[in-house]
């Protein structure tokens, strides 16, 4: 059943709200000894198993063509394993603020790639200027008025590359959305995300401590990341891309730092400055402007 267009915008905001709050669960799991790669593996594996329970019969195991199957594999790499590995590696090489800011270039990169590959999604002036205004707001929220910007060429480059991968992922979902159900596309993304991550464990073995994994705080946060942030959010997000387009959907990523700031205020008690409030206004106006096409 196709919903009214406004509902897809609402679901996009709710999805970003959940994604923006995952840093809390990830931080807790890291404190209990899990690496970012371990967390990604478990959350995608659980999500992959879970999605089978909502997949209608008869089951489709492969795409109609090998070319589509390769595109699906690319989705698992670009939106899954490679994206998370690059982003987590970058966090260890550069400032977290740099990562938060650079990753939000994904909507602009999506718009540029969309112009190159999909002529049907032409970027209007409002979308372009709205994106720039939102990106300015992201900068104000992330750096919070700090004039000290430490450049780490390799870390920043890896972050930019991960943003580019997410842009490609968005276009892949848009491409396949007209030929396959979003449940099928998302299930294949989970599968290839898990499979293509396995070589990483040759260099750093997967951690499994039964005592730690059975603690309610650990499996509870893993279930949140797997069921809500992965299974539900990825299915919903892919449907949003199909209905709104890759460019419009991606613009909601600008809200991520806003959600993180609010969560930090409510949970960690961090201070909100006038500069960050100005950033909130810029993000809100920019996203609204970008959606007015």
Textual characterization of the structure:
The chain is mainly α. It is globular and about 45 Å long. The protein has helices at 5-31, 36-52, 66-91, 96-102, 106-117, 125-143, 153-176, 182-197, 210-213, 216-244, 246-250, 256-268, 274-291. The two termini are 25 Å apart. Helix 3 (66-91) runs antiparallel to helix 7 and helix 8 crosses helix 10 (216-244).
**Structural class of the helix and strand makeup?**
mainly alpha
Mean pLDDT: 81
- Alpha plus pi helix count: 13
Low-pLDDT windows of residues: none
First and last CA, distance: 25 Å
Can you give the helix content as a percent range?
over 70%
Radius of gyration from the alpha-carbon trace, in angstroms: 19 Å
Shape: globular
- Topology as H/E string? HHHHHHHHHHHHH
Instruction: Count the beta strands.
Output: 0
Strand fraction band? under 5%
Q: Outline the biggest β-sheet.
A: none
Q: Strands, helices and their partners?
A:
Blueprint: H1 5-31, H2 36-52, H3 66-91, H4 96-102, H5 106-117, H6 125-143, H7 153-176, H8 182-197, H9 210-213, H10 216-244, H11 246-250, H12 256-268, H13 274-291
Helix pairs in contact: 1-10, 1-12, 2-3, 2-8, 2-10, 3-7, 3-8, 4-6, 5-7, 6-13, 8-10
Give me a quick take on this structure.
The protein is mostly helical.
Key structural traits:
single chain, 293 residues, mainly alpha, 13 helices, 0% strand, globular
